[in-house]
Structures are given as C-alpha cells and as structure tokens.
Amino acid sequence: MTAQLFGLWRRAAVVGLMLGNLLLASPLPAAAAGDVRIGICQSTAQGPATFSTALWKGAELALADVNAHGGIGGHPLRPVPVDVGNNDPAQARLSLNKAIDLDKITSLVCWGTNVMVQNGPLIDDADILAFTTSSGTKVVKASKLTQQLEAVTSLYCKVAAAEIKRQYPAVKTFAVLYVNYEFGIELRDKCEEEFGKKGIRLVASEGHPNAPPDLRSQLTKLIDAKPDAIYLAPIGGGTVALGIRTARELGYKGLLTTYGAGDTPDIYTLKLAEDNFFYVSHATPPGAPEAVKTATEQYGGYTLMGYEYVWLVARLGNEVLKNGQKLSGNALVAQLRKDRDIQTPVNRYVFQDDGYTIRPLAIFTIEHGARKLQHVLSASDLE
Amino acid sequence: MSIFQSALPFLANGLSLGLSIALVALAMALIWRVVGMIDFGLGAVYLVSAYALLGLHTELGFSLPLAILGALACGIAAAILIYGLVYRHFISRNAPLFVMVLVGLSLFLAGENLLGAALSSQKFYVIDAQLPGVDVLGTRLNVAQLGKMAVSLAALAGIAYFCLRTAPGTMILAVADNKRLALGVGIYVDHAYVWTFGLAGLMVSAAAIPDVAESGVDPYVALNPVLLALAAIIIGGLGSFRAPVLGAVLLGLAFHLAVWLFPASWQEVIAYGLVVVVLIARPQGLFGALHAARERA
Predict the structure, then answer these.
(1) Which one-letter DSSP state was computed for residue A27?
(2) What CATH number is attached to the domain comprising B208?
C-alpha cells in the first residue's frame, strides 16, 4: 500500500515537473517592443473606486489621441493598472514593485496620502515621474519626483471659504465631518485655518472611519453644536451621499459643502443634494474635447485628470527625447519644472518647484440630476 | 439642556442600531447552536438580499413591497443554496471549526470582491429621497430604523414560537441539543440544517432590506453588520435566543454613547474594547453560556 502510494506520488511529481518546464519554456506574452508604459492607480474598494474609474476613462481618451499622433517619440503609450486596494500602502507597494520591475512604467498617477508618502522613496529609487491626485500637503515632500495634479487641502478650503463668504454671508460657524485618516485630519485643520481667515468659526468636528456604514452619531453631535454649515471631508465613495442623507434626516437645514469627493455620479443623482449644497471641484472648460466633456458627465470630474495626466506625460516625454535625453523620472520632472506654466487641451496649470500646483477649480451645485457649474476660478485667480 | 436630555438622541439611535444588529446576531446564533459553526457566509446572504432589492425595485421596476418580498425570498434561497452546495460537503466530512469559519469567510469576501469587480463599487440608492420618520427622544428615527426595530422584536418572539411550537422548530431544537440522539430517533439532521439556514437567511435578509433602504447598496455593506453581530454574540452569549439580542442592544448603545461621551474617533475603540473586556471577565457572555465548539458525531 505504502509502495503504491509512493509510486503514485512519484508519478505526480514527475508530471508536475514536466508541466512546469513546459510552462517556463513557452513564450510568455511579452510587452510589445518600444511601448512606453504609464501606471494608473486603480482600486475596487468603495472609497476610491469611483474616481479611479473616472481617471482610467479619461486616460483612455487621451491615449487614443496621443497614440494616433505617434505616442512618445514614435512609441505608443500603454496604461498599466496599479492596484492600491483601499488606499493600502502595503498593497500599493506590492503593485508598484510589479509595475516598476515587470511592466517598466516610466510614470504614474496615484492618490492616497499614506500611499504616496510611504511609497515616495520607492518612486524616487525607481526614477519614475509621479503625478498625484491626493490633496495631502505632505505627499510631494516625500518624493522629489512627485508633482501635484490636484489642488491641495489648503486651496480647497480657501476656495470654499471664499464662496461661503460671497454667497452665504449668514454663515458664521461651521463644523467638519472628516475621515479619520491623515488626509481628513489635514483637511479639517486647513479648513479651520482658511475659514477662520474669513471670520467663520469652527464649532465642532468629528471623525469617522473610511467607508462608514452609519454617520448618525457623529452628525447628531455636530448638529448639536448648531453650525451654520457642515464641511464633509471623507475620502470619497458613498460617504458624501450618506452624510447628506443623514444630516437632512436628522433635521439639519444648514449649508452642506465638500471638495471633489462630491463630484461623482451618485451625488449628481441624489435629490437631497439639490438643496443648500455646493462643492469645489474641477470644471470642464467649453474648449475641452467633446469626448472628454461627455465622459466627465458620465464618470465624474476625475475623468479630466486622467486625460490630462496622459497628455502631460506625452508632451514631457516628447520634449525630453527631442533634447536627446533618455526617458526617466528625473528628466521628465526637470522638463516639467522648466516648462512650469502649461496649457493642456483642458486647463492651465502652474507647476511649482516645490511640487505643488496651481490649477483651476470651480464651484458646483446639483440641479435636475446633474452637476451645475456656478463659476470657475482659474489658475490666475488662485495664484 | 440637562446631561440626561443630551444623551437621549444617542440612546435612541443606539437602541435602533442594536436592534438592527440583533437580527444578524440571532441568525448567527441559531446556526452556531444547531450546526456548530460561525457562519461568515451570512455576509454573502446579506449582499444577495441587498442587491436583489436594488435590482428588483430600480432595474426591473417592481413595487417596493414586491421587491422586498423578492429580496427576502432571494436571501432564504441563497442561505439554503450555500449550505447545500458548500457547507454540507464539509459538515459531512466532520471538518473542524476553523475550516468552516474559513470557508464561510472566503465565500463572503469572494462575493464582495466579485460584486465590486463585476458590477461596480459605487453606492446605489434604492430610495432616492429622505425617508419619512418620527421625532423620538430628541432625534429623528426614520421608517427604516423603526422597521428594523419592530422586525427584530418580532423575530425574537417568532423564533422562540417557531422552535417551541412547530414540528420543524422542535426538530431544530432536538438537533441543537443532541445530534446523535436526534439521529437515533429518526430525525433527518440534514432537514433540520436546511430549516436552520433558511431561517437564518430570512433574518439576515430582514436586516439587510431596511439597512439598504436607508444607507444604499455597495459590495461592502455587509461587513459591518457581520462583524457587529459576531461582537454581539460574544458580548451577549448563546445561552438563550435572548442573549445575543441583548448583547446587540448593549453594543449598539455602546457605539452611540461612546460618541456622546468622547470624540467619535474613539467610537470603535470603545465598542470593540467592550468585547475584549467581556471576553476576559465573562467569556460565556453577559447573558448566557458560550458553548465550546461542538464535536460532531
């Protein structure tokens, strides 16, 4: 019996080894020679999933344009998804290592303060250019090769405070409901500072976990402090909608506001968001390509960022190659900082040497199931 | 406003949360008592009911009452199918408890991620409007919350009546008490298990439906109820059907009163800290006995 079993195992091992050799010997699907690979962070987790889809869709549109015009130095651009889980730095590191070592990406667009801060040294070591859509101010400090594509927390708060002062002068106090994560805490602190400059006092703030199922206790406490406005500062996903619904159900009639986390289709279609709510996000200028405008209406404001990321990488890459240099993160960043003031097909950016970026922002409300642009603040207005 | 008055809204919301958790806790407790496993697969059942409600009402245009009935039926069917197609295989081979836990957990996590990958991680709302409600103890409870509370209390009474007064119910109790003896007197254990999972599916669906009506659907909505239900069972114990319900109410109150007393960032620390304290001080639960893992014949 033992001998029979041993024989069986031995046969299985031999077959296994043969199969293994066959697999190793067979040609694996290879990257097309000469492709320029660019990384785009992705996630199926609730918070980031919606805007990562928008980023990808925008990137696809730009890739089609860029590749139709020869890509970078005649080489097509190919996107590489980089899975960051639920803004998990450890997951992001694993995915980044794969994207860098196997896929040989030359650039990356990603988000998440913790993800970017903890992987900043990896980005620098790998010599890749990274654009970030995270608003955290610490992100660009963690890496020399990372540039903001998004407005930082202080800018979002400054714009929101100015809009409240202008449009809602009766608002004298506010409260903040923030995600209990580095980004949310920073947004709370920056808003306290910027709103304070406009004479609007912070009267209460409460934190919540990422993707909370319930916000009743936090909002009960905030509403008890009787703020004239509540600033919602989650990571994204369904939390803004949950916050709006819960606040209104608890009888809160005051102003609700948020940043780009409100720029998603579930907010556009939320009837409760049509009353006494605005958010600060990215506008689609009238001159933007039609396909981009359509995609933005469907997927949300981060579609523009995906488009502009690819467009910027293509422009910088072509300039670097024209100068006789090799494509690398350092070369791309040097070119970016040299060009500094760039008009893309969509927006004008001012890329500062410290990694921060002045970019246009806009005020939106919700009407009839869609976002409604109230007004735009250009990069010049915000410089 | 006095201190007591300021606590009232948190008491009301805490009670509401507690009774909501109680349904899932009761379902888990029932499966634990009868089958001897901690069933994380109930999370997958929760998701099936949630998405069934969304699909039936918003996609297929069923009226809300019909969609609710459909979602309940889907939940029951899902629970029974999971038992029949997955768990039965392991139970018949006397798989140890940790294997059963892993199987259930894997089903749940796979279901979550499958929904996220195949459909979308976006949150969808079944009812796109403010839910009507009533003012209670200084706060406003909506119809979904009131419904959950009523269903929980009805479920507690109903499960007790079912188990004590009906033939399938006494069959379930017999198997829960002594499986070998039940087999010996000709009770089909498999039938008892089917009834058990069906009942658990019904209770979990009854919890999912108002939750979803209130807070929307996405692939991750089931995680919190399942974890809280497990915590409720640990706190309350399993000595009687009342025990996990009382444990759930205590947990719900802890969640909300923690925010009344401390910054909300301490909410989960305090609530789950309560679980640890109970485990240390009274491992059998505050209101009953936590039986050791059952040995199957």
Answers:
(1) P
(2) 1.10.3470
Nearest CA in chain B to A244: B130
Sign of the Cα torsion A44, A48, A51, A52 reads negative
pTM: 0.80
Q: How far apart are CA B53 and CA B127, in angstroms?
A: 11
Supply the mean pLDDT for chain A: 87
Residue of A nearest to B253 (CA): A217
Could you give the 3-state DSSP secondary structure of residue A205? strand
CATH class of the A36-151+285-360 domain in this structure:
alpha beta
The verdict on a CB contact (< 8 Å) between A46 and B133 is: no
Helix, coil or strand: residue A329 = helix
Nearest CA in chain A to B260: A221
Distance from the Cα of B4 to chain A's closest Cα (Å) equals 14
Pairing state of beta strands A348-351 and A357-358? Answer: antiparallel
Per residue in A134-179, pLDDT (tens digit) is: 888 888 999 999 999 888 888 899 999 999 999 999 999 999 999 9
Architecture of domain A153-284+363-382: 3-Layer(aba) Sandwich (3.40)
Q: Is B177 within a domain?
A: yes
What is the ipTM for the molecules in this complex? 0.78
Q: Into how many domains does chain B fold?
A: 1
Q: How confident is the model at residue A2 (pLDDT cuts 50, 70, 90)?
A: very low
Asked if A250's CB is within 8 angstroms of B225's CB, the reply is no
